[in-house]
C-alpha cells in the first residue's frame, strides 16, 4: 500500500482467516511501522509479530493444547499484545484479568478460568495463590523475557478460526460472582471489520485509548487499530496532563473518551488551548452528552464526534450515534444511544414474555448478531437465561426505540451500577457487607456522581443492639473488594422497603437521588 492509500480494516479482515493473520499481514507489509507507542516498551509491527511468535512457540513447547487458557494480570503493557497474538497463533484462549481486583477475587477467577499459564507484572505476583496455575507463570521483565529467549524458532501456525473460543473476558455477575464472557475468533474478526470501518481506521491512524485492556472498549478498539496497520498510544496511568501530551505529541487521529473527560477538556484552559488539529474522530461511550458539551467538544477538537453503546457480551458493538447526528435543534437525537451498527439487530421487548414492543414503548433492550457471545464460561443455565427465543440477547437495560430506530436508554432491568466506566454488581458488594457481624441486611444502589457518573451507596440495616459505623463498613468492603466496587457512602436505616412478596424495592431507594434527572442510567 502506498502512503497516499493506507490499508484499512476492511482490507485486513478480507484477507484474514484468523486473528493471527492480522499481525502477520502488517508485519509483512510494514515491518518497521510503529505498533505500540507511549508508556512501556515500544514495538513495531514486525517486532510484535516476531515476539508473539516466540511466545506462541514457547507455550506450545510447554505442552499447552488448543483451547487452553492463558491469563494476563497486569496493567496496560506491550506484553498484552504479544500474548494476544501468541494465543491467536497457537489456538489458545486469552483471559485478561482486572488488575484492580482484591486477592480473593483474583483467586476465584483463576479457579474458574483454570488457566494453563499466566503472564503477570511483578507487583501483582503476590495476588496469585501458590499452585493456582499449573503451567508457566511468566513475570514481566524477568522470566517472561527468559521464556521468549529460549523458545523454539518460528510461528507455530496453530491458529484458532471461526467458532473456536478466543477470549474469556470476566464481568461481575448478578449472582455476586464474576462470569467469563466467551468470544470466538469469528466474532472478533467480524467486530473488528464492522466497527473499524465506521471510523476510517487505517495504517495512518494513531489511536489513543486510555482505559485498561481488560475493558472491551480498550482492547477491542486497539485491536482494530493494530489490524489496520496503525499504532496505539498506550497508557499505564492516565492523567489529564498525560492525555493532552499524548494527543499532541503523538498526533493522535482517533481519541476514545467518556463524557466526563470531554467535559474536563472543554472546561480546562490548558486542555482547550492545545493543538488538536490531528484529531479526526472523538468516540465516547457510557452516557450521552449534553448540547453544551457537544458544542464545546466540536469547538475544541474540531473533529467528528460519535457515541457507541455496547457490552462485553457484544464486543462493545451494538449501536452508534454518528457524526451527522451530533447537531442541535428540533428533533435532535443527542439524548439517544444511536442506531444499530450495520449487521447488528436491536429491539425492545416486554421483560415478561419477550414480545417485541412498538416504537416509543419502554421495555428491555435486546440484540442479536455475529458479534454476540455464545454464552458464559461453565454457566450453561445462566447463558440460557440471557436469551429470548430467536437468539435475542438480553442486555439488562431498559429503553425504547423511536420511529427512526434510535435507541433511548432509560434505566436498568438488572441492577448493575456503572461507576467511572467500571461495572459494579450490587450482589457482589452486598455479599461482602453481609459478612460483617453487625449487619442484618443491606441493599446497594447507584447514586449520581459528578465525577464518576454514579457510585455505589450502601443502605444497611444493623443487627438489633449493634452500633454500625459508616467508615467501618467501607473499610470492611475494601479488605474484600476492589476499591471502585466499594460504597462511597453508607446510609443506616431501620428497615428496607419491600413489596408484598418480600423483594427489596431498590427503585424506591434510588428515587430520591435520581429525582429530576431524565435518565436513571449512566
Automatic annotation (TrEMBL):
<dbReference type="InterPro" id="IPR025110">
    <property type="entry name" value="AMP-bd_C"/>
</dbReference>
<dbReference type="InterPro" id="IPR020845">
    <property type="entry name" value="AMP-binding_CS"/>
</dbReference>
<dbReference type="GO" id="GO:0016878">
    <property type="term" value="F:acid-thiol ligase activity"/>
</dbReference>
<protein>
    <submittedName>
        <fullName>Long-chain-fatty-acid--CoA ligase</fullName>
    </submittedName>
</protein>
<dbReference type="InterPro" id="IPR050237">
    <property type="entry name" value="ATP-dep_AMP-bd_enzyme"/>
</dbReference>
<dbReference type="InterPro" id="IPR000873">
    <property type="entry name" value="AMP-dep_synth/lig_dom"/>
</dbReference>
<keyword id="KW-0436">Ligase</keyword>
<feature type="domain" description="AMP-dependent synthetase/ligase">
    <location>
        <begin position="24"/>
        <end position="377"/>
    </location>
</feature>
<dbReference type="InterPro" id="IPR042099">
    <property type="entry name" value="ANL_N_sf"/>
</dbReference>
<dbReference type="Pfam" id="PF13193">
    <property type="entry name" value="AMP-binding_C"/>
</dbReference>
<comment type="similarity">
    <text>Belongs to the ATP-dependent AMP-binding enzyme family.</text>
</comment>
<dbReference type="InterPro" id="IPR045851">
    <property type="entry name" value="AMP-bd_C_sf"/>
</dbReference>
<feature type="domain" description="AMP-binding enzyme C-terminal">
    <location>
        <begin position="428"/>
        <end position="503"/>
    </location>
</feature>
<dbReference type="Pfam" id="PF00501">
    <property type="entry name" value="AMP-binding"/>
</dbReference>
Amino acid at each position: 500500500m502506498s502512503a497516499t492509500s493506507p490499508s484499512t480494516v476492511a482490507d485486513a479482515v478480507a484477507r484474514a482467516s484468523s486473528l493471527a493473520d492480522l499481525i502477520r499481514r502488517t508485519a509483512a507489509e510494514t515491518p518497521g511501522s510503529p505498533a505500540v507507542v507511549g508508556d512501556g516498551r515500544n514495538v513495531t509491527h514486525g517486532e510484535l509479530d516476531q515476539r508473539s511468535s516466540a511466545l506462541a512457540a514457547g507455550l506450545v513447547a510447554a505442552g499447552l493444547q488448543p483451547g487452553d487458557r492463558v491469563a494476563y494480570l497486569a496493567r496496560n503493557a506491550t506484553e498484552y499484545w504479544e500474548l494476544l497474538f501468541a494465543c491467536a497463533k497457537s489456538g489458545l484462549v486469552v483471559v485478561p484479568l482486572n488488575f484492580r481486583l482484591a486477592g480473593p477475587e483474583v483467586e476465584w477467577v483463576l479457579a474458574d478460568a483454570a488457566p494453563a499459564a499466566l503472564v503477570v507484572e511483578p507487583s501483582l505476583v503476590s495476588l496469585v495463590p501458590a499452585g493456582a496455575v499449573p503451567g508457566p507463570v511468566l513475570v514481566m521483565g524477568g522470566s517472561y523475557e527468559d521464556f521468549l529467549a529460549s523458545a523454539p524458532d518460528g510461528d507455530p501456525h496453530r491458529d484458532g478460526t471461526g467458532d473456536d473460543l478466543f477470549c474469556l473476558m470476566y464481568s461481575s455477575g448478578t449472582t455476586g460472582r464474576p462470569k467469563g464472557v466467551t468470544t470466538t475468533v469469528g466474532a472478533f474478526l467480524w467486530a473488528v471489520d464492522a466497527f473499524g470501518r465506521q471510523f476510517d481506521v487505517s495504517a495512518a491512524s494513531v489511536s489513543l485509548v486510555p482505559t485498561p485492556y481488560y475493558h472491551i472498549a480498550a482492547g477491542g478498539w486497539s485491536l482494530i487499530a493494530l489490524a489496520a496497520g496503525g499504532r496505539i498510544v498506550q497508557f499505564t496511568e492516565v492523567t489529564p496532563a498525560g492525555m493532552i501530551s499524548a494527543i499532541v505529541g503523538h498526533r493522535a487521529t482517533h481519541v476514545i473518551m467518556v463524557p466526563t473527560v470531554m467535559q474536563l477538556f472543554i472546561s480546562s484552559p490548558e486542555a482547550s488551548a492545545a493543538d488538536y488539529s490531528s484529531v479526526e474522530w472523538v468516540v465516547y461511550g457510557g452516557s450521552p452528552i449534553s448540547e453544551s458539551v457537544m458544542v464545546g467538544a466540536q469547538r475544541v477538537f474540531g473533529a467528528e464526534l460519535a457515541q457507541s453503546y455496547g457490552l462485553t457480551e457484544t464486543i462493545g458493538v451494538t449501536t452508534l450515534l454518528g457524526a451527522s447526528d451530533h447537531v442541535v435543534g428540533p428533533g435532535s437525537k443527542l439524548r439517544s444511544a444511536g442506531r444499530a451498527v450495520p449487521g447488528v439487530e436491536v429491539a425492545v421487548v416486554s421483560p415478561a414474555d419477550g414480545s417485541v414492543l412498538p416504537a416509543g414503548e419502554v421495555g428491555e433492550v435486546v440484540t442479536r448478531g455475529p458479534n454476540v457471545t455464545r454464552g458464559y464460561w461453565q454457566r450453561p443455565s445462566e447463558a440460557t437465561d440471557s436469551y429470548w427465543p430467536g437468539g435475542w440477547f438480553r442486555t439488562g437495560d431498559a429503553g425504547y426505540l423511536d420511529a427512526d430506530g434510535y435507541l433511548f436508554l432509560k434505566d436498568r432491568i438488572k441492577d448493575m451500577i456503572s461507576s467511572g466506566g467500571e461495572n459494579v454488581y450490587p450482589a457482589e458488594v452486598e455479599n461482602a457487607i453481609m459478612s460483617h457481624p453487625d449487619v442484618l441486611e443491606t441493599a446497594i444502589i447507584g447514586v449520581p456522581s459528578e465525577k464518576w457518573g454514579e457510585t455505589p451507596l450502601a443502605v444497611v440495616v444493623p443487627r438489633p443492639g449493634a452500633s454500625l459505623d459508616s467508615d467501618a463498613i467501607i473499610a470492611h468492603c475494601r479488605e474484600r473488594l476492589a476499591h471502585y466496587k466499594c460504597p462511597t457512602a453508607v446510609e443506616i436505616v431501620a428497615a428496607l422497603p419491600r413489596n408484598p412478596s418480600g423483594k427489596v424495592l431498590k427503585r424506591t431507594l434510588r428515587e430520591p437521588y435520581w429525582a429530576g434527572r431524565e435518565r436513571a442510567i449512566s
